[in-house]
Design goal:
218 residues; alpha/beta; Rossmann fold; 7-stranded parallel beta sheet; 7 strands; globular
Length: 218
Amino acid sequence: MTNTALITGASRGLGLALARSLAEAGWSLVLTARGTAELRQVATELDAVALAGDVTDPAHVERLSLAAPELDLLVNNASDLGVTPLPPLAGYPLEAFKVLLDTNVTAPLALIQATLPALRDRRGAVVNITSDAATGAYAGWGGYGATKAALEQLSNVLAAEEPDLAVWWVDPGEMNTRMLADAVGVEEAAGATDPAKVAASLRDLVASRPASGRVSLQ
């Protein structure tokens, strides 16, 4: 039986690295991201099903769930950094914060809800990608960190409510990605961990299936 994974934010960074790692291990993949051209290239490379779109769009979430009627792993990796340069909370634009919450918290929950029947059937797993900004008081990271803290608690409760599933909220540490470069600059981001290394650790996590909980890969 072939395992199937649904990965959001799969056109670059950690999502792309994890897709490549799982494909290497023989997984069947359903991938999504907003960038159609980039996603199409990844799908061709990995012989994957690709559905470009915005995870905050309910119609797109429904399409994704229909594309994965048999599902072993959901990876909520798609995320938004929010306003840049990163502003202090005293001046964080509230409308922008609402958009950030929609992308980083509401959208993952919507996709979990949509795919739960398939995940339950296969006693599958959910990986929600979080951040040390969810627990650390880093100046400028309040908006992003608050959304990741909410995602962590959502994951924690999901694990309690769905004991037959494995639910991990994973802090991957700093990675050399476009998002980190947008936050701290290209030069500093270049010294961070290669996403491929993190993806290998994530694949090992899924294969070993430890108890649900928070996982730090730093």
